[in-house]
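Practice problem 4.
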């Protein structure tokens, strides 16, 4: 019976692969999203440089560095969760299957992202009722306030005065390397970004921002609303979610600064309605805090990140016409009550497009921020593993066949944490602890952030005569030795996406 079950599971996976390829072939040959001039648009993440600067396309500003463009076609990916960290990674991003130009704040290399506008899902996000600790205990739960405080308001000056003490400007110093005639050289470059205060833990002041704001920084400096500055260190970061938490030591701050700053009020992005007011505050172009006002243009814009190794991960962003410029990354997007509803992340930049900025929904960010606050930096031999191989279930397959979106388990290693927990081939992982799973890269990133021996809660969708039902299991993570028992085959005689000929490496980003 077990052999028959295994054969049926493998046949089911082969059918899913064939159907996925057919769906995506139809998608790729559908309506073109390229502009009338046949030129790629660009998607810029708030980024500024000063000191030794390099000028590129995009904004055309001389204190901005812009990455090159490249073409990407969406494909179904499979993975194998065995990998080793590289020295450097460039994340790539494309919107609407168009090659787009992205600029990262505080990192040397440019990056790209992709937005899948063919399918726009309205998936459920995590509740804003999560708590972030303060003074060795959680702060009060976020009070959900829906709607605008004032209808047709034209003056937000009082609101800005109230929230500005929770907003910070971030400056990062890093070394930019380049090669001339085979010789490597380095120069010091300075970038700018933004952030906001989320809590105080004992003598640590914790600030949320984007991962790309602090990625690769040699030194991070935070400027507060009173003009005082302090050095910060990275507490935790999540490259896939593009979120980071940095820490400032309270004893390093003057009493006047301690008295003037405050923790930001966090709202509920799930309760937002299109057309509500949106206020973006951030360190635009590194000139200091500035304010722009607009509206929530759309919710749940699906975005797919692709890395150099072919791995992908998906997220959903808020869209706003409030101007989000270089240096705004990591700053707060507020509602008309002054509650943080999003973390400013980037903009869609094109000569034909105006007013398309993007922010990470705060309800989605809160559980990740909570996790980053507690996360420890682990060595490779300390990281935990489930011991599975899998593939993404795209939104196209989800809509066409009703297979839940998430990470489909295509193989379970014998003696692995997954096997012991009862995870089976053809299960779809949709959540780990309180984190939503939209791809196998999400599984990798979350699981490998925990140490061997850690117990994690895995929420699965399992088919019961064609009907998917939710099931929750607890897995105790093991080391990577169980990965050797995985037998994910080489595809078409070539290496699997992001992997090696022996099937290892798989779809996982090699540095996480």
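Answer key:
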């Amino acid at each position: 019976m077990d052999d028959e079950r295994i054969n049926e599971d493998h046949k089911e996976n082969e059918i899913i692969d064939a159907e996925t390829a057919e769906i995506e072939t139809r998608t790729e040959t559908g309506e073109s999203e390229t502009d009338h001039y046949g030129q790629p648009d660009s998607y810029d993440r708030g980024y500024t440089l000063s000191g030794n600067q390099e000028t590129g396309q995009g904004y055309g500003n001389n204190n901005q560095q812009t990455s090159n463009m490249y073409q990407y076609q969406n494909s179904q990916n499979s993975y194998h969760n065995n990998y080793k960290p590289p020295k450097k990674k460039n994340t790539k991003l494309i919107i609407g299957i168009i090659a787009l130009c992205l600029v990262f704040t505080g990192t040397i290399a440019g990056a790209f992202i992709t937005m899948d506008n063919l399918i726009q899902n309205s998936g459920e996000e995590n509740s804003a009722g999560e708590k972030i600790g303060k003074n060795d205990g959680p702060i009060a739960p976020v009070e959900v306030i829906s709607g605008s405080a004032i209808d047709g308001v034209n003056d937000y000056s009082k609101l800005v005065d109230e929230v500005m003490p929770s907003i910070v400007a971030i400056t990062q110093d890093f070394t930019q390397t380049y090669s001339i005639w085979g010789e490597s050289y380095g120069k010091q470059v300075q970038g700018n970004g933004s952030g906001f205060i989320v809590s105080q833990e004992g003598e640590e002041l914790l600030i949320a921002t984007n991962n790309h704001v602090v990625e690769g920084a040699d030194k991070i400096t935070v400027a507060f609303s009173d003009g005082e500055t302090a050095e910060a260190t990275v507490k935790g970061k999540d490259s896939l979610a593009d979120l980071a938490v940095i820490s400032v030591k309270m004893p390093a701050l003057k009493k006047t600064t301690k008295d003037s700053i405050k923790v930001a009020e966090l709202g509920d992005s799930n309760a937002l309605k299109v057309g509500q007011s949106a206020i973006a505050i951030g360190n635009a172009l590194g000139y200091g805090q500035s304010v722009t006002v607009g509206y929530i243009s759309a919710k749940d814009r699906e975005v797919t990140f692709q890395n150099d190794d072919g791995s992908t991960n998906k997220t959903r962003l808020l869209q706003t016409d409030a101007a989000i410029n270089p240096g705004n990354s990591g700053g707060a997007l507020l509602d008309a009550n002054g509650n943080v509803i999003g973390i400013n992340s980037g903009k869609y930049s094109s000569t034909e497009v105006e007013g398309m900025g993007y922010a990470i929904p705060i309800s989605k960010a809160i559980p990740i921020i909570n996790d980053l606050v507690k996360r420890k930096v682990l060595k490779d031999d300390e990281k935990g593993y489930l011991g599975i191989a899998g593939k993404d279930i795209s939104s196209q397959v989800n809509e066409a066949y009703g297979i839940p979106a998430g990470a489909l388990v295509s193989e379970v290693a014998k003696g692995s944490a997954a096997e012991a927990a009862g995870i089976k081939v053809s299960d779809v992982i949709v959540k780990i602890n309180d984190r939503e799973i939209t791809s196998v890269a999400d599984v990798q990133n979350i699981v490998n952030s925990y140490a061997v021996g850690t117990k994690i809660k895995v929420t699965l969708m399992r088919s019961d005569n064609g009907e998917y039902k939710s099931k929750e299991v607890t897995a105790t993570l093991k080391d990577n030795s169980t990965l050797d028992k995985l037998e994910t085959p080489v595809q078409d005689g070539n290496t699997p996406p992001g992997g090696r000929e022996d099937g290892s490496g798989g779809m996982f980003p090699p540095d996480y």
